[in-house]
Amino acid sequence: MRKLLLFCGGGWSASSPLIYTLQRKSKYAHFGLQKNFIYLKYPTTDIAGELVFDFDQSIRNIIQKHIEGTWENYKSFEPSSHRMNLTEDLEPLKDFSNDFFTNLITGESKISKFIDFYVALHDHVVSKGYKSVGLFTGGSGYKLLYKGGELEEYATHEIEKALLSEFEIKCLFIVRDPIRRAFGQYLNAMQREIDKRHTDRRFNQYQLPYKLNVVNYLDDVEKCRQVYGEDNVHVTVMEELWEGDGAQGLSEFLGHSIDDLWKNLYAPDRGHLVEYDKDVPCQAYGQDRKELTPMMYYELLKKYQHVYDMWRERFGSLPMHWGKPITYE
User: Fold this and answer.
1) Angle, CA of 94, 256 and 172, to the nearest 5°
2) Which band of pLDDT confidence, cut at 50, 70 and 90, is reported for residue 122?
3) CB 69 within 8 A of CB 75
4) Helix (H, G, I), strand (E, B), or coil: what is residue 169?
5) Contact 80, 282 (CB under 8 A)
6) Sign of torsion over alpha carbons 88, 125, 95, 61
7) Domain with 177 in it
8) Does residue 153 belong to any structural domain of this protein?
């Protein structure tokens, strides 16, 4: 049966370096034209009651650029970029017919088109030596749809059912110390806000919010296991993947050797001392704006201790570097 790797997040946990590893280094899964390729959004029903979806204009733009021959290396090294459109990424797709892409952006967006595309992409990349096709859900969740409501829940179920009808699915999560992950997301948001306003105001004009987006990873992991089966879901810890023995467990889960990891600027963690690196341009964007001091970390830990406690209860212990501050040098 065809294989699909559903990469379920999460953001600011070195998801890009891991996907670069899977596609460029170990040639396990190919993700198509870029890392984020979310095709089905905001479901509605047509007059016959069939599910249709809003089309993401950014995907249309990417496909059009690819057909025109201008997507390759387009803004590949800009800070915050994780487009995965280098020559080495797109070379395996050189002889993948543009008809498959044209069909995606012609007419209504439907689950059948989505499945047909990924079946064709799978068969093509497997012929190039990959073991699987990859699909990134984005963020820190496992769903392809996010807004909630009965229609979205129904649509999500229909997508899952369609995927399982064609693919053997493995779900992969990458997680990081919850507070440091959330703090990185916060700094990135502040940088984007500064860029949007075209101003030189520094980060110290902002106050750290009382609430960060600290994610309880176990919620999404459990939901994913319910859909795809416990044996088909793997959680890899960022810190242990790059600094410990996490690659062994990942290799066993995939049935494929993962022994040459892409560069990760946060292993060991450099915090606010991180510098731009063209090989991972997304990782340094905004992260130098403020230090996560030990005092700040411990204050946040008082509020989010329950997230760490739930992890410890589930797995018996905390991963490497979790639950304690890092002194950045």
Assistant:
1) 85
2) very high
3) no
4) strand
5) yes
6) negative
7) 2-183+218-270
8) yes
Q: Look up the CATH number of the domain holding residue 259.
A: 3.40.50
pLDDT tens digits, one per residue of 44-88: 888 888 888 887 788 889 999 999 999 999 999 988 888 899 999
Q: What does each C-alpha distance from 107 to 37, 66, 206 come to in angstroms?
A: 18, 19, 45
**Kind and range of the H or E element at 29?**
strand 29-30
Cα–Cα distance, 31 to 134 (Å, whole number): 4
Between CA 168 and CA 324 the distance in angstroms is: 39
What would you report as the CA-atom Rg of the chain, rounded to the nearest whole angstrom?
Answer: 20
Cβ atoms of residues 60 and 71 within 8 Å: no
Are β-strands 51-55 and 40-45 bridged in parallel, bridged antiparallel, or unpaired?
antiparallel
Phi, psi for residue 253 in degrees, rounded to 5: -65, -45
203/47 Cα distance (integer angstroms): 50
Please list, in sequence order, all residues whose beta carbon lies within 8 angstroms of the beta carbon of residue 90, skipping any fewer than 6 positions away. 33, 66, 71, 72
41 DSSP β-pair partners: 54
| CA-closest candidate to residue 203, choices 193, 217, 213 | 193
> Residue 32 corresponds to which amino acid?
G
Range from 33-42, 166-175, 223-232 carrying the lowest mean pLDDT: 33-42
How long, in residues, is the chain? 329
Asked whether residue 194 is domain-assigned, the answer is no
Residues 6+ apart with CB under 8 A from 93: 30, 32, 33, 124
Q: How many domains does the chain have?
A: 1
Alpha-carbon distance of 49 to 99, in angstroms, equals: 28
